[in-house]
């Protein structure tokens, strides 16, 4: 909560080593509901820290951070997906962040495959008369994935 309102709180957290702790936490969570809640809070905190360019740079420079966040984006299907997406967009607002993403060709290939799968799924859902909510969620996820792909290509 404090990171959403205060740059000083964010700076103190980063100085205390919160980025490494949060990344370690993200890597260790399971798919259980309580762990997914913890994951959402960890991603939200990192997103709040990355609002400040100098702290976003610290995040980018932290070993394995971009890879961890991108991996979480690729594997999450719930709210964590959108939090990771916001965080990756903030990372991509820094040229160093774009380069860090480009240095992960295997994960970028998975991102490309995800956009293709979501595109195919969105087209199938348009033809299906089933739930509107599922279609909207798929289209929203597709939009986020395509934006990220575009940011990594264009810098």
Describe the structure.
By secondary structure, the protein is mostly helical. The chain has a single domain, classed as Alpha Horseshoe (Leucine-rich Repeat Variant), CATH 1.25.10. The chain contains 9 helices and no strands. The longest helix has 23 residues. It is globular, with a radius of gyration of 16 Å. One of its GO terms (molecular function) is calmodulin binding.
Strand content is under 5%
How many DSSP E strands? 0
CATH evolutionary superfamily: Leucine-rich Repeat Variant
Low-confidence stretches: none
Report the structural category. Answer: mainly alpha
- Biggest β-sheet strands, sense, barrel: none
Shape: globular
Percent range of helical residues: over 70%
Oligomer: single chain
**CA gyration radius, whole angstroms:** 16 Å
> Could you give the order of the helices and strands?
HHHHHHHHH
Instruction: Tell me the number of helical segments per DSSP (H or I, 4 or more residues long).
Output: 9
Give the number of domains. 1
InterPro entries: ARM-like, ARM-type_fold, Armadillo, ASPM
ARM repeats: 17-64
Main location: cytoplasm
GO cellular component, one term: cytoplasm
